[in-house]
Request: fold
Amino acid sequence: MNEAKDRRRAGLRCCRIAHTEAVEDYLKTIFALSSRSSAVTTSAVAGHLGVAAPTVSAMLKRLEANQLVRRTNDHQIGLTDHGKRHALGVVRRHRLIEVFLADVLSVPWDEVHAEAEVLEHAISARLEERIDTFLDHPTHDPHGDPIPPPSGHHVEDWATPLATAAAGRRFLVERVSDRDSDVLRHLAGLGVRPGVVLEVLEWAPFGGPLWIEVDGRRHALGSGLVQAVHGRTL
Reply:
């Protein structure tokens, strides 16, 4: 049995609960929702994971009993400091794997998220460290998501969405949501990636698309696309 399976089945030394794939997925989901300033409720977690609300409620009770999550006065769910530390560990493995898949194996950026969802539960701490060293300690994954350090402070910032950019401004893309592979594939085809500077041309009237220019080419982006792209105006 390898180190990763040992960790999941036996739990970490600081926890009484075994760190199964499900436990890691819940911690990561709560972290992801809270970092987007979303209301972290049972229904929100259920929607994110695609499971039934009663299943979520049962898991949350286990996590709360083991002091990994807490409930606020307005019935929302938050991570304890202990829970956040473990959530960041999962996020770190996930994003390092994405970089490895994209940079070393040339896996397209619209596919690395799904692959990393599987592999994040399987690699050992030793392999994680070797991947980090081999990649020369990357700070961001292919979608612009910041990679948490092995210890210490981590800032999970979501920059301004393109949806709020004013016409006539230049916009530096810093981060793109990886929730939808079709969106990523489409944006890649337009040349919209972290590090790219695009021109915000005009908003079509009556809720129409946003027209942008990338490398001299005009493109129309609908509401779902402009919400997925984050960065800052220049």
